[in-house]
Amino acid sequence: MSDEPDRSWTNGLSAADRVEAVALTVGKPRTANWIAEEAEVAHETATKYLTRLVDDGTLRSDTRGQQTTYEPDPVGQYLAEMRELYEEHSPDELAASLEDINEQIRTWKTKYDVETANQLRASLGRTDDVTDERNRRQAAREWDHLETRRRLVEDALRLYDRFPGEHRSASA
Q1: What is the rounded (10 degree) CA torsion for 122, 116, 71, 79?
Q2: How would you classify residue 5: left for phi > 0, otherwise alpha for psi between -120 and 50, otherwise beta?
Q3: pLDDT tens by residue, 117-145
Q4: N or C: which terminal CB in the chain sees fewer CB atoms within 10 Å?
């Protein structure tokens, strides 16, 4: 039995696909060397595909000294996700999603007697219950996520007004 990790995720993927898969899942900026190692490609190969991804607006790069790091472009990700929502969901489905988001946030506001996720975080000092503290922290993280999600859904809905007749939803 081998002590080498199973790298089956690379099977059947081109070098470009592997570089993109690694680069789009980094949690913090990474160098081409790091991405090349994870994607199992040569440094030069990684650099070539990373440059393309930066040029396409998928990644952003930052050069300090002789070191360049890469990370997903948040604007590009936002726009891609908004487009996906627009193309894959009807206006009614998106409106229902907004209702669900708003209801969850209203529930937290009432339950914890706060108006924002940060007020919920500040309320951690008012509880001695470890479970309640953990629940409040988790709710605040989810609240932040839902606020971002709400903006995405609202922007996707605005696309229906901006581009009437262009929608090709599989759900419609």
Answers
A1: 180
A2: beta
A3: 999 999 998 888 999 999 999 999 999 99
A4: N
